[in-house]
Amino acid sequence: MAAVYSGISHKLKSKTTSWEDKLKLAHFAWISHQCILPNKEQVLLDWARQSLVAFYKKKLELKEDIVERLWIYIDNILHSKKLQNLFKNGKTVNLQVSLIKIINERIAEFSRSGSQTNICAVLSCCQGILSTPALAVIYTARQELIVALLSQLCWSACRQPAAAVVAQLFEVIHLALGHYLLIQQQQVNPRRAFGEVTGHLLQPCLVLRHLLSGGTWTQAGQGQLRQGLSRDLRSQIEAMLRGGVFQLELLSSYKEELLDQQQGDSKLGAMKNLLAPMDTVITRLVDAGYCESSLHAAVVASSVALLYKLFLDSYFKEGNQLLCFQVLPRLFGCLRISHLQGEQLQALSTSDWTTELLVVEQLLSSVASNNIYNIAADKIRHGEAQFRFYRRVAELLVNHPQASVPAWFRCLRALVSLNHLILEPDLDDLLAAAWIDADVAEFRTRKAQEALIHTLFQTYVKLRQVPRLFEEILGVMCRPAAEALRQPVLAAGPSAVLCECLLELPPSQVLDAWSLVLEKFQSLVLPYLRDDMDTALKSLSLSSLLHCVMFNMRSLDSNTPLPVIRRTQGTMQGMLRELVKPLLGLLLDPPGPEPELWLQKVSDSALLLSHTWAQVDTVLGLNCSQYHAASGAPTGVIPEVSNLPLLLPGVETHHWKKIEKITAQFDSLGRYCLEQLYLQKMKRTLMQTGFQCEEALCTLRDDAAYILASGRESLTAGTMASWDGQVGTVSVVTYPIAHWHSIVSNLTILTPYLCADDVRYLAGVLLNTLPMSKVQEGSADEEPNITLGKISEALFHSPLLPEMQSLYSAFLVCLTERCAGVLCSGARGDLRLLSQQLPWVFGEDPADVAHWETRYAKVGPEGAESRGEIAQNLLSLAKSDFPIRLGGEQLESILGLLGVVSALQLDSLSAACHVRCFLLLLSTAMAKLRGPCSSPQTLKFLTTCYRLLGYLQRGKSARSVLKVMYVSDIFEIVLTSLFKASSRFLIDRDDPSWLEFLRVIGTFLEQLLQMLVQMKLSPVLNFGKIIAFLSECKGYTEAASGKQVKTQDPPGRQLLLVALTTLCGVLGPSVRERRQQPEAPEAALPGLLQQAAVQLGTLLRLCAPRESRGLHPAFLSSVCTLLEVEVGQHPRPSETEISRVTDKTPLPGPALYRSVYSQVLPALPALAGHPQSFQAAVRFLALFSSAPELHPEGESVFASVFHAVRNVLADPAVPVQVIQDIEPHLGALLSHMLEARTTEDFRTLLQCVLHGLDVRNAWRADEPTVLSSVTLVKLLLSCPLDGEKSRLFWRACPQIITALTLQNREACQEQPLPLALVESILDVLAALLRQGEEAISNPHHVSLAFSILLTVPLDHLKPTEYGSIFPRVHNALFSILQCHPKVMRKAIPSFLNCFNRLLFSVIHEGRQKDKGSADDLPAVLECARLVERMCSHIAARAEDFAVFAPFMVAQYLAEVQKVTLSPAVKGPLREGVYLLLDLCIEPDVQFLRASLPPGTRDVFTELHGDYTKHHKGKHEGERRYTA
Q1: C-alpha to C-alpha distances, 1001 to 870, 1071, 1321, nearest whole angstrom
Q2: What is the pLDDT of residues 387-415, one digit of tens each?
C-alpha cells in the first residue's frame, strides 16, 4: 500500500487524473497512516489552496460541486484533530496569503450580492483558521487582512442573510472581533487605529450594533442567535470603538478641535496631521450611503447615544467638563429633530419622535449624572455656552409637544433638573403642553407626566417661588381654549404631587397661591359665567385647583403666628363673601324648561367651593382656638331651629331648596358636593351637646335620608366605570362610585338615623355590587382606581360591618331572600301547599321569622306537635320527590350566594335569624339538581351547604334550632336526602372531593350529636330513634342479610359508614364518662352504644377490603372507632346488658382487626401521601398495639409496627415534604407504643437506630436508611421518655452525636448536596443540644457539633436551599450558646468560626445582584435578622466575648467591603454590629482605627459615626431611665 501512495503528489498534479479521483486520493492520503509523503499535511493543504486560487483567477475550470468539495476538504483539514495534534507536537503547517485573500473575497462577494455559493464552507474555513492560534497568526500578522475581513463580515450581517447562515456568521464575527481587539490593544500608532476604525469599521459596526440591540436575530420567533452571544458582540463593538476612536492619545486632538487649543507638545509627530477627529466620526456617521434610508435615522440615533457614552467613559474627569459638553451639540446635530424645520418636523411619526427623544433623554441623563453642567462656571467662564444649547433643546421640545411619548416628558424633566431657568421663559407653554392641555391616556406616559409635574413643583418649592408657578398655571388655565376638550386638571397623579408640595410650603406662600386663585377667579371668570359654557368649565377647573389648595395645606393650630391666622380668617371671609355667595346666586334664578349645561358646570363649581369652604372652616375652628369659625345662623332670618348648624353661613335656608332642584337634574359633581355639605352638617350637629333633642334627631334623620335618596337612582342603575378618588374627576359616569364611596365611608354616622327601608336598600346595594367570585379570596386586581365592587368588597371584609347590627342584619335578610328567590325559581308543584310546608322559602315576608321561634318553642304537647310538624314536612319531602330543582344557572347563582354566606360571621346571629338560615340552608342542601350538573358540581354544592350548616351550628344561637326540630329528626332528614342524592353519584371513591364531602358530613353530624350529649336533650330517646332509623336503611339491611351489590363500596354505604362511625364516636366517650361518675350509670346508653357498634361491625365486614390498596379513610376511621369502643368496654365486662346484647349479635372480633392490621402495615408507605388515610392508619395501629388480646400469636406487634414506620421513612417514593408532614403522627404513634413497652424493647429499638446511623451505610450510598434513622432519633426526642428508657437514650447520645458527625461529613462531600439528610441532621443536633443540657456531661461531645456546623456548605446553594439550611445551622449554634455555657468558655474560637461563616454567607447572599428574582430577598433578610439576634445574645455575654468583639467587627468590615450589600439586608447586619460595638471599649476603637487598612478604616469611621449617632445615644437615653 505504501507504493500505491508514494506517487500521490504526481497524481494530484497530473492533468490526466480526474478531479473525482484527485479528491478521493487527497482524502485517503490525509486520513491514512500508510501514505508516506514528506511534509504531507503542508503538501495536501497547498494542493487544495493552489487549485482554488487557480480557479478563482480563471486559470482553471472546475465544476461547482468540485469547488465546493475542495472548500469542504480544506475545512475538514482545518477542523481535524490530526492537525491539532500536529500543532501540539510542535510541528508547523503554514497558510498562504493567497488562501486568506480568496476567503476575504468570497465573504466580500457574499456581503455585496448575497450569493450563498459555498458560503457555509468558506465561513467554516474562516472559523477554523481564527479559532486556531497557530493559523490565526496570518491574520494578526497582516492587520489589513483582519480589518478587511471584519468589515465584510459586519456588512454581510447587516444585510440580514438567510437563517441557515446566521449562527455561523456571528460566531466568525465574534472570533474576528476578539482577534482585532488584541491587535488594537498592542497598536502603538493611534493614527492608524483611528483610520482603520473610522475608514472601514465604524459604519458597519454601528449598523450591526443597532440591529443587535433591536433584537433582530434574538426574537422569540426566530431564536437564530443566542442572547449571550448578542450581548458579547455588542460589548466587543463598544470596546473596538473605544480603543480606536476614543484613545487617550487622541485627547489633545479632540481638545484642539473642540476647544480651539493649540497643541503644546512637539513630540506628537504622527498626530500633527490628524485634525478634527470628531468631525471625521460625525461625517462617517451621518453619511447617507452606507445603509437603507429607512434604517439610517434609527442607526444614527442609537449611535449618537453610544458615542457620547464612550467619549465620557474615555475622557471625562475633573477639568474636562467643557470638552465633554462641546461634543454634545455636535452629536445632537446628527439627529433629525435638531435640523428639520416646520412641516418636515410635523411629518415625523410618533415612533420617529420616540426614537430620537429617547436618545436626547440619554444625552441629558449623561450630562446630569456626570455633573458636566455647572451653572456658575458656565455663566462666569464660558459665556453661558451650555445654557444656550439647553435653551435650544427646550425650545424645540416645547414648540413641538409630543404628549403621547413618555420620553418627551422625561427630557423636559431632565432639563428642569439641570436648571429651572432653561424652561422658565417657556413655562406657560410647557404647562399647557405637558399638563393642562395634554391628552394623556397611556399608563407609562401618565407616570412620566406625573414625574415631570412633581419635579416642577419640587423645584419651585425649594426656590420658594410656588406663587410664581401658580401664576403661570392660572394664566394657562384662563387662556381662551376649547375647555370641553381638556382633561381634568387635577387627576389622581397631579393632585398627589400638589398635595406633597403644599405640605412643604410655609403658610404665607400657600396663602399667596390661594389669593392668586381667588383673584383670577373673581376678575377673569366670575363676571362672564352666565350663558358661557367655556367660562363655566374654566370656573370648574379653578374650583378644583382651589379645593386642592385648601384641602391639602397644613392646618393652623395654636402655635401658628397670629398674622397668619388673621390673614387666613380674612381670606376665608373674602372667599365666602366675594366668590362662593355670588356663584350660588347664579343658581337662584328660575331655571328654563330644559336644563342648561353651563348651569350644571356653575352649580358644580359653586357647590364644590361651598363644600370646601365649609369643611376647611370647621377644621380650622377645631384645630386653632384663635380662628373664629363662622356661625351657623343665616343673616337677617330667624331660623326654625336656631341652635342647629346650617349648610353654609349667610345663605338662607329656603335658597337651598332651589339649589337642590337644579342639582337634581344632573348626576354630577354638584350633587356629590351637596351630599358632602349635608354630611358636614350632620357632623357639626353631632358635635353639639344637645344633639339628642327631638329637633336635632329629626334633622339628622332628614339629612341622612336626603343623602341616601340623592344618588339612589344612579346607584341602582350601577356602572362598570372606575374613579380615581379625586373630587375634580366626578362626572356623570363616576358619580355613582363617588356617591357609594361617600356613603360607605360615613356609614357609622348615617346608619343610626336611617329608617328600616333605607337600611335594607343599603344592604341590597351592597349585595348587588359585591363581586361574587372574589368574596372569599379578595380582589387580585392591581388597578389603583376605585370601583363599586371594590368599595363593597372592602366594606364586606371590614370588621365594622358586624358591629353595625342593623345593616348586618338587613344584609343577611337580603342574602337569605336572594337565596330563597333562587330556590323559588326552581320550585315545582302547588306553590300554596309549598308555602305551608316551607314557609322560610316561600313566605311573603322574609324578615318575619320571630314567630317561628315563639310558635315552635312552646312547652308541652303542643310544642312537641309543632316540632314534629316541620320535621314531618321536611322528611316527607325528602322521601318523596323534593319539589325544588336547580338548573345550571341557578346552581351558579346559589353557589355565589353561598360563597358570600361563607365569608360572614355566622356565630353571632339572633335566634330568629339563625333558625331561618338553618332551615334555608337545609332546604337548599335537599334541592335536586337537574340538567347537565355533573357529580363534581353536585358534590361542591352539597359540601358548601353542609360546611355552612356546620359553621352555623357552632354559633351562640345553635340551640334555637333544636327548639324547632329534634336532633334525631335532623339526622334522619339529612341522611334520607343524602342517600337519595348519592344514588346518582358517578364518582371514584378515592376522589379528593368525595373524601372532603364525607369529612364535612361527618363533622356536621358530630356537631349535632355532641350538642345532644352536652345539652342532655333526651339523649336516650334521640339516640334510640337514630339507631332505629339506621337499622332500617337499605345499606344496613343489605349488609345484615349478606346481600351482595354490584358496586363493592357504593356511595350510600360509605355515607352510612360515616353516620355509624360518628354515632359510635360520640356515644363511646359519653358512655365512658358516665361510667366514671359515682352514681350508677343508666344501662340504656351502653346498650344503644352496643347496638350501634354491632351495626357498624356488620357493615364493616361487608366493606372490608380484599387488598391493601382498597384501604379507604372512611373505612379505617370506622375500624378505629369500633376498636376504640371495644377497648373501652373491656374494663366493664360484667355488665349484663352488654353481655346480653353481645350474645345475640356478636361484634366483628379479632379477625377483622387482624385482617386490617395485616393490610395496614405493608400499605403504610403508600398511604403516606394521603393525609386522612395515613392519620386513620396510625390511629388504628396505636389502638391495636394497646390491645394485647388482639395480637397475632408468636408476633411482636411492637417490632412489626416499628419496622413499618422505618419502612415509611426509608421509602424513596415518599417525598421529603410528606415525611415532614407525617412526622407528628409517627411521633404520637411511637409515644403511644413506648408507654406500654419494656426497657428491653426500647433497647432493641435504639440498637436498630444506631445500626442505621453506621457510617458504612453512607459508604454504601444507602441514604434512605441513614435518613430514616436520623428521623427516628428526631421522633424519639419528641417522645416523653421517663425512667430507665430516658437514661438509656442519653447514655447512647455520645454515640449518636459521633455518628451524626460522620454522616454529615460524608453527606457534605456529595454533589448535589442531599439537602433532606443534612437538614435532618441539623434538626436532630439542635434538639439533642437543647434537651441534653444536663444529660450530656462530656464537653467533647458538644464540641463535635462545631465540626458538623463547619462542614455544612453555605455557598453555591439555591435561594430556597439557603433559606432552609441557614436557620438550622443558626439554631444548632444558638443551642450551644444558650444551653452549654461551660463548653462555650473553652470553645469560643470554634464558636466564632461558625458565627463568621453565617455572617459572611449572609453578606454574599445579600449583595446587590444584576440578575435574580426579588423573591429571593425575603429569605436572605430573615437570615440577616437571625445574625442580628445572635449578636444580641453574644452582647448579653460580655464577660466571655468582650475580648473578641473588635476582631469580629474587623472581620465584618473586611468582608462587607468585597460586595455591595442590599439596603434591606444591610440594616439588620448593621444593628447586629452595633451590638458588638457596645462591647468595645475606647482602646478597642483606637486599635481598630490604627490597624485597619486605609479603605477599611474609612468604612469603620463611617460605621462608628452612625453607631454613635443612631445607636449609642439612644441606648444611653434608655439607660438613664432604667433602675
Answers
A1: 22, 23, 42
A2: 999 999 999 999 999 989 999 999 999 99
